[in-house]
């Protein structure tokens, strides 16, 4: 029996040496140390042995069993290392390759410009006041001194949301940020502890505006505006000029020159438009400024007494100035963008340049 054990061991170790994958090793285990292996057969014949043979054969059989098991364990480790080495060789990592760029989202160019404008105005003491996009005719026009059928309404063709049964006061999409002036003044004057002495106001009103226009390279049906409003005692046109000169220098550079041209808006009197010296050609004349040397950037004026009154401010005691500008227009001028439709066209090739 001892000879047989030696043979079993020899044969098992021999067949183990040629094994090179896990499946074969599993099969080897079943065949050589499994329940119906020749080795286990020896254990089951144990009963037939004499008293003297039992311990001799028993310890020999146990030794063979332990030897086969430890040989199997060794082989198993060997196979694992071989697999790892193989995968390391196959999946070689070239650490000198350039990395993959991670695409980072950005703010829309208009939002970026809107924020630049608001940052500058904030430095100058203007607080942001956000007002609604859906307005009434009363707020968008009438309170701003446009009566129904006033010809100045033609400058602001309107999207109506609900016109039925509302007479002279249909609901509409705001055509400019100016109705926020009325809402801000009313908020402040109604909250005042002394109604004859409402607080002064210095605010910036940003947001989307809507006009029922033919969409062309020069006009869109939606665009942003930033409106400025200052109301207080003894505010003069000189304050307006100083504020806008300061703003223009902060926005377009220390040397930026500006000029005021007389204009008309129903809600300001007097009214003006402001041009900056063309920053593309330096005022010499080019395509962007259409050879005039100047670029129009905003409308402004002294708040009309009727508008102050509508906001709850006594025009005999209070005065104020207002101005309104377009971030998209500023971006177009700054970056020589010749078509306003790019802004809402959602073409990443345009957007990712900002
Ligand atoms: N609301 C005017 C527009 O949309 C812009 C404007 C002009 C705003 C003069 C003002 C202002 O506050 O004083 O065309």
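Sequence proposed for the structure above (354 residues):
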């Amino acid at each position: 029996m001892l000879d047989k054990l030696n043979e079993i061991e020899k044969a098992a170790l021999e067949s183990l040496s040629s094994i090179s994958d896990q499946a074969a090793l599993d099969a080897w285990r079943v065949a050589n140390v499994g329940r119906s292996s020749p080795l286990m057969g020896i254990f089951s014949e144990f009963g037939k042995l004499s008293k003297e043979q039992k311990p001799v054969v028993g310890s020999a059989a146990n030794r063979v069993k332990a030897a086969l098991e430890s040989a199997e364990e060794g082989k198993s480790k060997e196979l694992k290392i071989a697999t790892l080495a193989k995968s390391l060789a196959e999946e070689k990592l070239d650490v000198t390759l350039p990395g993959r760029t991670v695409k980072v989202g950005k703010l829309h160019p208009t939002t970026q410009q809107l924020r630049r404008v608001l940052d500058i105005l904030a430095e100058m003491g203007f607080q942001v006041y956000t007002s609604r996009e859906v307005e009434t005719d009363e707020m968008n026009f009438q309170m701003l001194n446009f009566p129904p059928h006033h010809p100045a309404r033609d400058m602001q063709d309107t999207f109506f949301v609900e016109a039925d049964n509302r007479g002279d006061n249909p609901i509409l999409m705001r055509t400019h940020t100016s109705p926020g002036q009325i809402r801000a003044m009313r908020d402040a004057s109604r909250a005042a502890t002394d109604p004859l002495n409402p607080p002064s106001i210095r605010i910036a009103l940003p947001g989307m505006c809507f006009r029922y226009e033919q969409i062309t390279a020069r006009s869109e049906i939606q665009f942003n505006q930033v409106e400025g409003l200052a109301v207080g005692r003894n505010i003069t046109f000189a304050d307006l000029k100083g504020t806008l000169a300061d703003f223009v220098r902060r926005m377009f550079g220390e040397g930026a020159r500006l000029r005021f041209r007389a204009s008309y808006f129903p809600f300001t009197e007097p009214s003006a438009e402001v041009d900056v010296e063309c920053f593309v050609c330096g005022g010499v004349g080019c395509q962007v400024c259409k050879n005039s040397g100047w670029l129009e950037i905003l409308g402004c004026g002294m708040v009309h007494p009727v508008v102050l009154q509508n906001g709850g401010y006594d025009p005999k005691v209070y005065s104020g100035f207002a101005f309104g500008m377009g971030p998209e227009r500023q971006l177009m001028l700054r970056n020589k963008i010749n078509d306003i439709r790019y802004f809402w066209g959602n073409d990443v090739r345009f957007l990712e340049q900002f």
